[in-house]
Amino acid sequence: MVERSDVVVLSVRPEQFPGVHIDAGGKLVISVMAGVSAQVISAQTRATKVVRSIPNAAAVVRRSFTPWFATTTVSPEDKQLVQMLFEACGDAAEVPLESHVDYCVGMTGSGAAFPALLVEAMIAHAVAQGVPRAFAERAARGVVTGASQLFAGAEGDTAQIVQAMIGYRGTTAAALQAMLAAGFMDAVAEGLEAASAKAAAMASS
């Protein structure tokens, strides 16, 4: 099959890649594996044109954001093909450095997991206050899905949005300031770093 193809997509778990034996010389190879470098992919597959990408689970509803990196040997025409491929699953953007893809393993590759954790935290607190779980789940999910639509059309960067909310000095400001004081930013940073470390470990195992 590889011999008859112009484009090869590598979609296996990183720890399974050492068992993939193909000759993709002259082919465009697109990897969706976390943590496996373009150099390693090229060495194992003989491919000289390699693209690394990190889509996420939202691709099933065409809402993934997919960062991708191309080696210098990938032509402009091939890059257009890659962009079109990933835009069929949502939004996509080429990044200038391969290290940016490695970082995005945690930031974008985790997909709905981060909002889901926030929703569950909100539900757990509501239930502890006596709110029925079914209602709490509906309400918390509504917050996240509604916010995503607002973000899609919002002007200005996210920091400005947060500061504007704090500037109102109301209940939302009180909530945001309490979360920040409790180490919200540090917790998110630790999560992103843990995801990147796990991806590197999976690739080397």
Describe the protein's architecture and organization:
The structure is a single chain. The chain has 205 residues and is an alpha/beta fold. The protein has two domains: 2-105, 3-Layer(aba) Sandwich (Rossmann fold); 113-204, Orthogonal Bundle (ProC C-terminal domain-like fold), CATH 1.10.3730. It is 53% helix and 12% strand. The chain is built from eight helices and five strands, in the order ββαββαβαααααα. It has helices spanning 38-45, 76-87, 98-107, 113-128, 133-153, 158-167, 171-181, 184-204; strands spanning 7-10, 28-31, 49-53, 64-70, 90-94. Strand 4, helix 2 and strand 5 (90-94) form a beta-alpha-beta unit. The longest helix has 21 residues, at 133-153.
If helices are DSSP runs of H or I spanning 4 or more residues, what is the number of helices? 8
* Helix residue percentage: 40-55%
Strand order of the biggest β-sheet = 1-2-3-4-5
CATH superfamily of the largest domain: NAD(P)-binding Rossmann-like Domain
Instruction: Report the major sheet.
Output: 5 strands, mixed
The unreliable regions are none
* Distance linking N and C termini: 28 Å
The domain tally reads 2
Order of helices and strands: EEHEEHEHHHHHH
Any idea of the CATH topology of the largest domain? Rossmann fold
CATH hierarchy, class of the largest domain: Alpha Beta
Task: Report the portion of residues in β strands.
Answer: 5-15%
> What gross morphology would you assign?
elongated
Number of strands: 5
User: Would you identify the CATH architecture of the largest domain?
Assistant: 3-Layer(aba) Sandwich
